[in-house]
Structures are given as structure tokens and as C-alpha cells.
Specification:
With about 550 residues, the protein is α/β, with parallel strands linked by helices. The chain is about 45% helix and about 15% strand. The protein binds phosphoenolpyruvate and magnesium ion (MG). Magnesium ion binds next to α18.
């Protein structure tokens, strides 16, 4: 084992194979070039890089990585910098140098000037110039990238390089990068900010060249204790095993299940809505349907219990707005933190564990049946499904469906049309439901995982209590394992599974969700664009 001192830049630990990022060198060869062709290649590479930067900016913004989004915008400006442009074109046209080598020379020239300044801002600018240049060289399609081996593999790696690169982080993603070793970047460099927000540990204080003898070796970096271990011994592995296995759980999810595909047909982006206006917005943004209509807001927005007619009008309007696309209407999840002033709300010591969700509906059958009737009546006007919240056992579903059948009988007698094949699904929001998913799948048409509550109940952390907020972690291995097994049970029983809690909008988890086999992600309307951008982009 080799133990190397370093300086932590972004805290955390990670393990993977050491990879030394190869620097693209200026070639000494003076080949005959067609300067018109090289200029055109440079110009095309700039256009492609601009598009990539637009997408990066969108992705970063959607993940609330505001600073990263600002970096991308600033870096994109360099692509329109006249001085940089002129320098490259002059070299191509007057010195007969290829586009790639001209960019490298421009990169070195401008970075040298910027690095001579003591100002941190200028140094950061030099990193931007470096990044942009690398991106442009990558975009010159006939250039062989000396780091191809890195991109062709799917191993988890610790990358050592002169500079951290924002585009490299985005390109490989958190699942591939276990950590980074940089010669020059500090905490405030743009790439470090991005790495930090993605929970990638980063260290500095050693030269990439000095690490060459260890390339390909298993390595652990501990940015908190300022150490790098190459070929860690058993004691060191043991010391880090708990922390690292946590991360492994994330990266290994569903490795052997469905093939990874970002084909948009394989995963649908649905919207979470609370009213008809949200449905309109969702349709404008191209949502494939409504994955969660939180109907309790209709009750919370009223001074009295909304009548059958009022509810029918609202559900019908949403069914019409969505024009044949699936609308999953969740029966009212009243109780817990969702109080309705005109309803009897017991004073409960633990409201989150009290009378809420389906158990509350079953305790007030008339109210529940009115809602079911309104939903069924609206089902004649679109593609509606029903979903029950906070299920913990089979009996609740059986009982809820019994009420549904009673209402169907009433409607038949009254000659009121409704969808006789309406799908009835359940939310998986409790560890009990997740653990019993195999059983529940036999009496459900679909599952939708409510990761907000599933996290709350699995980790025993009140989702509304800010003093324990830092412990509320939807990526906790226990939650992830439940997500994985729920999808497995759904598939085994031939029903569909989606996710509709906040975790569904977590772009860093998308590959994992697809691998697990989730068919839909239902997200707030404001997140739809970002998810679509991400999926079509890969
Ligand atoms: C959830 O629990 O993840 C969910 C979508 O339901 P709500 O946030 O309305 O409780
Ligand atoms: Mg919930």
C-alpha cells in the first residue's frame, strides 16, 4: 500500500481505479493541411460546443446548481471571444497548423497571460479557457482523444489531472467518478464547486505525473483526512468499508436488470399537479401525462367539503385538458401535515403516524365514496386512473376497492357513464408497502413510489422538521434498496411502476431509475423541461 499526503478540496471519500488524464499535447509534426477545411472544422466545433454549453447550463439550473450554471454561461462567452478566435484562425491560415494544434497553442498562450495575474478571478478564467479549448478539441471529430479508454470503460475511477474539468465531470457523471486529484484547482474553482455539489471528493497537493506508476491500481482518496491510499491494505479497506459501501450501493443499483437506454419511449416524464392550471402548464411542457394529482388541495382550498359536482367538474376539466393522456388521480391524502380546517382533525401526538392517507379515507366512507364517484364520472371524459395513498397493507386496498365497486354499481343504476376498466394503483410510501410489494402487486394495476414519505418512514425522520433535515436523505441505501425491490416486484407481477416523490426529479439518479426498470417519473411542472433535456441529451 502507498499512502500519499494531499490536501482536501471537496470533502468525502471515494474508491476506484486510478486514471491519469492525458493532456493533449501540441504535435511537432507539420502535416500538410487544408486551411479552409481546418477553419470550417474550428467553426463547427464552436457551434457544437455552444449547444453543449446550453444543455449543461440547463441541466445545472434544473439541479439548482446555480453557480455551475453561471460558470457554463461564462465559459460559453469565450466561444465568442474575438481575440481567441483570431489567434486560432491566424495560426490555421498563416502558419498552416491544424485546428486542434492551433486551439492548443491559443489555450497555452491565453492561459499563460491569465496565470501571470495574482487575481483569483483571472486564474479561474484561465481554467475556463483550458476547459473550453479541451471541449473544442474533443469536438473536432477526426481527432483521436488520448483519453478514449476512459470514456469507453464503465469502471469507477479516481481521476488525476492537472486541472479539474467541468465538462469531464458532466460527461462521466457521479456514477463513474469516485474522486478527483488535481494539481491546481482550489475550492472555488468552478469544477470544484460542481464536484462538491455532486458529492465527489477532490484533493490537491500532488502531481499527476508522480502518480503515473500507480495508474490502474485500486485507490482510495480521503479528502477529509487529506490522504490517498494506493492499493489499500486490508486494515485500510476495513476502515473505509462502511462509508464506501454506501456509495457502492448507489452506483451498483440494478446493474444487471434492464439494459440502460435513454430512449424517451422507455421512461415517461409525467407531471405532479394540484389543479387544472398545473395540468395546462404540464401539457404545454410536453408531459406524457399526470402521474400524481394531489386532490387533497381541492379540499384544503375550500371552506367546506367540495361537493360531488364541484369535484367532478375539476377532474373532468383535467381529463379534457390532458386529451387522452393518462391522469393518475390520487384520492385525498388528508391528515399528517395536511390539515383541512372544516374537517375534524384529531389532536395527534404524531400526526405523520396518525390518521392520514387511505386509512383516513376508509374511516370516512361517505366522503371517500363521494370522491370516488366524482373521479369515476370524470373517467368518461379522458384516460383516468385512481391511486390510493399511504397504503400499509392488503386489507386497505381490498376495502378501498370494495367501496369503488359499490360506487360503480350506483353509477350503473343511475345510467351515468364511466370507464368500467379504470386502473387502480397504489402509492408505495411506507416500508410496509415496499416490503409487501409482491403481494400488493397482485391486487394493484400499478405502483407509484412516493419517495418523500418513503424516506420519512424508512429513516424515521419527520419530513417537516427542519432540525433533522440534514438526516433526511432520499439516497440512503435503505431507501434505494426499497426502490429497487419495489420495481422488481412490479415487473415480476406484470404491472408498471413509477416514482412521483421529489427524488424523481433528481437527474443524477435517472440512469439508476432506468436500470431498475421504472417506467415513469412524475415531477413538478417546473422540472419537466430539465428532465426532457437530460433524457434526449444522453
Ligand atoms: C410522496 O410522499 O413522495 C408523495 C409524492 O406524496 P406527498 O408528497 O403528497 O406526501
Ligand atoms: Mg406522500
Amino acid at each position: 500500500m502507498q499512502k500519499i499526503n494531499c490536501v482536501g478540496v471537496c470533502n468525502g471519500t471515494g474508491s476506484g481505479k486510478l486514471y491519469i488524464l492525458k493532456d493533449e499535447q501540441i504535435s511537432d509534426l507539420k502535416n500538410e493541411i487544408d486551411s479552409r477545411l481546418e477553419t470550417a472544422k474550428f467553426s463547427n466545433a464552436k457551434s457544437r460546443a455552444k449547444r453543449i454549453y446550453d444543455d449543461y447550463t440547463k441541466k445545472a439550473a434544473s439541479e439548482n446548481l446555480k453557480e455551475a450554471a453561471d460558470v457554463f454561461m461564462a465559459q460559453k462567452e469565450i466561444l465568442s471571444d474575438e481575440e481567441f478566435d483570431k489567434f486560432v484562425v491566424d495560426l490555421i491560415e498563416n502558419e498552416n497548423i491544424s485546428a486542434a494544434d492551433s486551439i492548443r497553442r491559443a489555450r497555452d498562450y491565453f492561459c499563460d497571460i491569465l496565470n501571470q495575474s495574482d487575481e483569483e478571478k483571472m486564474m479561474a478564467r484561465s481554467h475556463d479557457v483550458y476547459e473550453i479549448s479541451d471541449m473544442l478539441i474533443n469536438e473536432l471529430s477526426d481527432e483521436k482523444d488520448s483519453n478514449d479508454a476512459l470514456f469507453d470503460s464503465d469502471e469507477r475511477v479516481i481521476i488525476a489531472s492537472k486541472h479539474l474539468s467541468v465538462s469531464l465531470i458532466i460527461r462521466l457523471g457521479r456514477e463513474r467518478i469516485a474522486g478527483m486529484i488535481t494539481e491546481s484547482d482550489g475550492k472555488n474553482s468552478h469544477a470544484a464547486i460542481l464536484a462538491e455539489s455532486l458529492d465527489i471528493p477532490v484533493v490537491t497537493g500532488c502531481l499527476a505525473d508522480d502518480l503515473y506508476p500507480f495508474e490502474g491500481k485500486e485507490t482510495i482518496i480521503d479528502a477529509t483526512d487529506n490522504l490517498i491510499y494506493v492499493e489499500p491494505d486490508a486494515i485500510t479497506l476495513e476502515k473505509y468499508s462502511e462509508e464506501l459501501s454506501y456509495k457502492d450501493t448507489l452506483k451498483n443499483i440494478g446493474d444487471t436488470k434492464m439494459p440502460l437506454s435513454f430512449d424517451e419511449n422507455k421512461i415517461k416524464i409525467y407531471a405532479n399537479i394540484a389543479n387544472a392550471n398545473d395540468a395546462k402548464e404540464a401539457m404545454k411542457k410536453g408531459a406524457a401525462g399526470i402521474g400524481l394529482f394531489r386532490t387533497e388541495f381541492i379540499f384544503m382550498d375550500s371552506y367546506e367539503s367540495p361537493s360531488l359536482e364541484k369535484q367532478f367538474e375539476i377532474y373532468k376539466e383535467v381529463a379534457e385538458i390532458t386529451d387522452g393522456k393518462e391522469v393518475i388521480i390520487r384520492t385525498a391524502d388528508i391528515g399528517g401535515d395536511k390539515k383541512v380546517p372544516y374537517m375534524t382533525m384529531l389532536s395527534e401526538g404524531n400526526p405523520a403516524l396518525g390518521l392520514r392517507g387511505i386509512r383516513r379515507s376508509l374511516s370516512e366512507p361517505e366522503l371517500f365514496k363521494t370522491q370516488l364517484k366524482a373521479i369515476l364520472m370524470a373517467s368518461a371524459y379522458g384516460n383516468i386512473s385512481i391511486m390510493f395513498p399511504l397504503v400499509v397493507c392488503r386489507d386497505e386496498v381490498v376495502q378501498a376497492k370494495k367501496y369503488l365497486r359499490e360506487v360503480e354499481d350506483e353509477l350503473k343504476k343511475e345510467n351515468i357513464p364511466f370507464d368500467e376498466n379504470i386502473k387502480v394503483g397504489i402509492m408505495i410510501e411506507t416500508p410496509a408497502a415496499a416490503l409487501m410489494a409482491d403481494d400488493l402487486a397482485k391486487i394493484s394495476d400499478f405502483f407509484s413510489v412516493g419517495s418523500n414519505d418513503l424516506t420519512q418512514y424508512t429513516l424515521a425522520i419527520d419530513r417537516c422538521n427542519s432540525s433533522v433535515e440534514k438526516y433526511y436523505d432520499s439516497h440512503h441505501p435503505a431507501v434505494i434498496k426499497l426502490l429497487e425491490s419495489v420495481a422488481e416486484s412490479a415487473h415480476k407481477n406484470g404491472i408498471k411502476a413509477g416514482i412521483c416523490g421529489e427524488l424523481a426529479s433528481d437527474i443524477t439518479m435517472k440512469e439508476s431509475f432506468i436500470r431498475m426498470g421504472y417506467e415513469s417519473l412524475s415531477v413538478p411542472v417546473s422540472k419537466i423541461d430539465a428532465l426532457h433535456g437530460f433524457l434526449t441529451d444522453i
